[in-house]
Amino acid sequence: MLNKSNYFIIFLAFSIIALHSCEEPYTPEVLNTEQQFVIEGFVEAGPGANPTYVMITKSIPYTSKIDANALGNLFVKNALVSVNDGKNNVALTQLCLQQLPPDLRRQAAQSLGLNGDSVNVDICLYVDVFNQLDRKIGGKYDLTVKVGSLTMTSSTTIPPHIPIDSVRWTDPPGEPSDTLARLWVWVNDRPEKDYYRYMTDTDGSGLVAPFTSVTDDAFFNGKKFEFPLQSAPRRGARDFDPQTAGLYMRGDSVTVKWLNLDKEHFDFWNTRDFAANSGGPFASYTRIRTNIKGGLGVWGGYSVSTYRIFCPEK
């Protein structure tokens, strides 16, 4: 005769078998779709703003292997790209690697995980070379991209800017250090919903966003709030040390690019950062949000301020 524990074991065994027999491998839809165009473009207003630019590439299957030749072939050239600011419809000019200003070259390369100063890939952007767009807080910017018979569109805004109010330096947590410091910033948030992003540069090689680069004001809406601003590590850096990650070297001059963005633009980076930081065999699949109609990627507006902050010697 079977007792209750025996029945439970048998029930559990049959449940596991049933679940296993019903389990099907999950293949994300994007692995099986046709090749699409990917847009990454930004329009900025404020001190330290970059020229308006758009980069167009082609999507590849998730499991593809990429070398320099394959990467170079992903860039889309001879597209028709224009931005309407409500008054002017401005055609952007195609510029390739050696024609790009150093800051744009670095930013385009870093978005692909490359070193912008030594990359051999023929990166091409579409740029508002003559600064014809009226870039301002509250402005709305409509993007149109034509590649062959395909037309892709998007819209973004440049939201109000909430600057950094003040900063302070402290010793890092744990053992005292004579060489490292932690940066704290104060922000006076508005009662309205706001979204933030930032980048740092500590060695003059270009601004880089941290692994988690965006936040909203859900926990400090309408308040004066202080939080640590981490130093962004270089992607793929061989000297990465988790013990010093996010900290700054005393005596260094630090550049911080402080950004506000709208909700759709925030959603792109929020899902992109989550996907990039959720590796491993048990990570959940994340579909990165896009605001491009007819394609993938992001067309985003930023209000910008740039700060040069000296990390004092101890």
Topology:
Blueprint: H1 4-22, E1 37-45, E2 53-58, H2 68-73, E3 80-84, E4 89-91, E5 93-96, H3 102-111, E6 124-127, E7 140-147, E8 150-157, E9 164-170, E10 180-188, E11 195-201, E12 214-216, E13 224-228, E14 248-249, E15 253-260, H4 263-276, E16 296-310
Parallel strand pairs: 1-16
Antiparallel strand pairs: 1-2, 2-6, 3-4, 3-7, 5-6, 7-8, 9-10, 10-13, 10-14, 11-12, 11-15, 15-16
Please tell me about this protein's structure.
- The protein has 314 residues and is α+β, with helices and mostly antiparallel strands.
- The protein has 2 domains: 29-157, no CATH class; 164-288 and 302-310, Immunoglobulin-like, CATH 2.60.40.
- The protein is 16% helix and 33% strand.
- It has helices spanning 4-22, 68-73, 102-111, 263-276, and strands at residues 37-45, 53-58, 80-84, 89-91, 93-96, 124-127, 140-147, 150-157, 164-170, 180-188, 195-201, 214-216, 224-228, 248-249, 253-260, 296-310.
- The strands form 3 sheets. It has an 8-stranded mixed β-sheet, covered by helices on one side. It has a 4-stranded antiparallel β-sheet with strand order 4-3-7-8, with no helix packed on it. Strands 9, 10, 13 and 14 form a 4-stranded antiparallel β-sheet that branches.
- β7 (140-147) and β8 (150-157) form a beta hairpin.
- The protein starts with a helix and ends with a strand.
- Mean pLDDT is 83; it is low at 1-24.
